Amino acid sequence: MTVDSTNAVNIARVLSEALPYIQKFHGRTLVIKYGGNAMVDDELKHGFSRDIVLMKLVGMNPVVVHGGGPQIGSRLEQIGKESVFIEGMRVTDRETMDVVEMVLGGLVNKEIVNLINHQGGRAVGLTGKDGGLVRARKLMVTRNQAGMDAPEIVDIGHVGEVTQVDTTIISTLVERGFIPVIAPIGVGEDGESYNINADLVAGKLAEALNAEKLIMLTNTEGLLDGEGRLLTGLRAGQVDALVSDGTIHSGMLPKVRCALEAISGGVESVHIVDGRLEHCVMLEIFTSAGIGTLISA
Fold first, then answer.
1. Quick one: angle between helices 109-118 and 42-57, nearest 10?
2. CA dihedral 32, 36, 39, 40 (to 10 degrees)
3. How far apart are CA 119 and CA 113, in angstroms?
């Protein structure tokens, strides 16, 4: 057998392995939180956009929610404004919020839309403000510091939490064959714009859409045990235990809490996958092995 024919057989084998997953998830909604290295490496960006188009072409309904923290930080630096974080949250005054809207709702969102469309998809860019998609309220941060008698409540500006999701515009786009690409900006009852954590928006949107899966791209392999080994399949109760004993800690905690809330809200499964691997979405969905951590009820 020649090298070319060997490659052809391998490709056919991969396609054959994907068939049951294509059948299982046909017509189902999958929410993908897109962020980390996958958003800044050109090769990874093109691979991600091809994955999303393929999902749509085989009958799945992908909905993309993206972040953009590094891009916001870079633009703030260009205008001479320092990025300030409290408890991991970006302090967002009115000037910073203007930059957030420009970068997330404009530059980043439209780049993702263009990448997907260039691969033959039909993507439409939105923010949570469009069609009343994401309603929000101001998020107040509680800060504990040594020597304080009581926790300090800190106002960090235009940073919000989700109060309500109206999926009408998303459902309309999906039914007409479009791929929604959503920037995590919400609107308050007072008409103010709020910068919201993209993981949180993706989780709440997955709940509201009764999504089959929430896929969260990260800069790590997934959830690890105490010895640094990848945990591939976990129940929600097992994840709670890993949080309680400190195995899951620091930066991974907010992502895990979003995952557990999504499971509690009816999402069938949450996948935390390494966005640094090319075609990570396809590898997780279309193969039996998978590459990250799967959390289910």
1. 60
2. -170
3. 10
